[in-house]
Here is the input.
Amino acid sequence: NEIKIFSPATVANVACGFDVLGFCLDTIGDEMVIRKTSKKGIHITKIEGFDLPYEAELNVAGVSALAMYDAIQPDCGFEIEIYKNIKPGSGIGSSAASAVGSVFGMNELLGKPYNKTELTQFSIKGEALASQCEHADNLAPAIFGGFTLVKSLSPLEVLPIPSPDNLYVTIIHPQIEIKTAEARAILPKQVALQDAITQWANFGSLIHGLHTGDYGLISRSLDDVIVEPHRSKLIPYYNEVKTAALQSGALGAGISGSGPSIFTFSNGIETAKQVEIAISKVYGNTTIAFDTYVSKIN
Ligand code: HSE
Here is the structure.
């Protein structure tokens, strides 16, 4: 009547895929314990790692759990323990990991009444509490694994996209906080047609590159001409990190989700580790503290 789960970190947007593309990391994530109780309702009983609200209605994990609870109206309640490793506001899907973990765990304990798309649908409610708008580009990869493309939110349609075997990601997280809601507020409501053309050409090519394992095409398709020009201003030394990554062999780089984390892709783990060293030097020369991760996409 209890399940312990690992809820993974994710990278949303992936340069040219704002709000629709994302992928799941291998080893970085939160742990959660979900327990069935005779006391009805959703009760968050423990939170370690970061200071987050215990009231279910105010907690991302609680809100998605309540969405599922209200839908199924079970004859029991649930306790949720959250052991958070992913720092809120870091740009690697901290709120999505919380939103997904509670519904995934409850679904297992109830005998899996819901499929992955339905679980994503419930978790959108939790994610919306954090970012003040509905999007599923972190949630879908956390639930489905690998790369996912959110084709539409209404009706929710998620397409799993293959990940080439040798594709590795290096992430650097400068320890400044960027709130997703604020990083969304600075984006223009309209884009120029020429930019839209460049963006969808890149996006289609990136998806084709992922399907065919064409690392050169992936590398040539990672430009984001719509969102990055605005959000990169929020991240100190962004251009320096990107340049260092490309010079040390990365296929490309971009803002992870709404930042401040920056992701880079490499063909092979050795290059991914060289990229880690090169981009660490950029923040190493400043007063900004940072973490780095090298991961496969899983
Ligand atoms: N697609 C979202 C954004 C991801 O960039 O605002 C962050 O939650």
Remarks:
- Residues 12-13, 18-19, 131, 135, 137-138, 180, 183-184, 257-258 surround L-homoserine (CB under 6 Å).
- Residues 193-212 form the longest helix (20 residues).
- DSSP finds ten helices and ten strands in the chain.
- The mean pLDDT is 96.
